[in-house]
UniProtKB/TrEMBL annotation:
One Pfam family here: TetR_C_7
Species whose genome carries this gene: Quadrisphaera setariae
DNA-binding interval(s): 123-142
Region (Disordered) residue spans: 1-37, 295-321
InterPro entries referenced in this protein's UniProt entry, alphabetically: Homeodomain-like_sf, HTH-type_TetR-like_transc_reg, HTH_TetR, TetR_C_Proteobacteria
GO MF annotation terms: DNA-binding transcription factor activity; transcription cis-regulatory region binding
Listed PROSITE patterns: HTH_TETR_2
Name this polypeptide is given: TetR/AcrR family transcriptional regulator
Amino acid sequence: MVRQLEPGPGQRQHQADHHVERPRDHTPAQQAAGHRRRRVELVLRHDPHPLLLHRSVQHRWSYGSPDGTLVPGPHPEGAIVASAETHDDDEARGEDPRAARSRQRVLTAATACFLAHGYDASTVEQVAAEAGLAKRTVFNLYADKASLFRAALERSIDTAERFTGELLAHVHELAGARDLRAGLGRVAEELALTVLAGPVVPLRRLLAREGERFPDLLADYRRRAPEAVLVALASTFAALTERGRLAVASPELAAEQFAFLVMGADLDRGMLGEPPPPAERIRARAAAGVDTFWRAHRPGQAPAPDPETGPRGGSATSSTS
């Protein structure tokens, strides 16, 4: 059952988009970055049609429909939780328009510098020159290079999350697809092009290099982008298996296999510094990956044993135990 909760103590109802919001304390880094962050948690309760429930929540999350449950308190056991964090834009929060424009120029320049040179090799002087602003202007907006890096990466993660939201809407549309094989092909192509042909791979490389220094940013990106895609794929595959439209023993493993089949090798190459492949190759590899996935999991197939439980339902033996 999906319902809208009333705001509790210390919360406020945002009438425009039907969100129940809980104000959170901001870290000094977030304050220095000039962001006001809101966190909204979406709890997807068990339902006879989990895919349709996922889809209704995603529709509300992406496009402002009032459907969906917003749970600010403890989550029910077995619930699937997806969280979205948004940043108010600078002018909406009352910042001077000129400062807001300077901030966006600085963040754009900082993102380019950090992606090209990494954290250690980038300097505030380089960012100021790239932005066409005085160094003093950058320091008026951000206290130090670390604060600037956080702000630039948080904006890039926001962009990645928006791409993810658009992709998830198409994943959930598989519920009503008359031609499931074709629908999987469309999702695979969009997933591969979004990751391999855009800014995602450079962002991942940068986060991988600086993850030890900024572990919270790395964890935030994983939760809001790649992990969100895998959760959606697994939920979708589970629901389609229940309806007899797929044959999947482990939805989580099938989601990982699907993602790797449609982009894994080229993603590995990109993480090691190779330039992105042409769009034609990305589409062809994604289509070939779907062909392999469909042959293994099309209706009527006997699902392969779940490696987590073993072929007879017992615990699989771990090589590390």
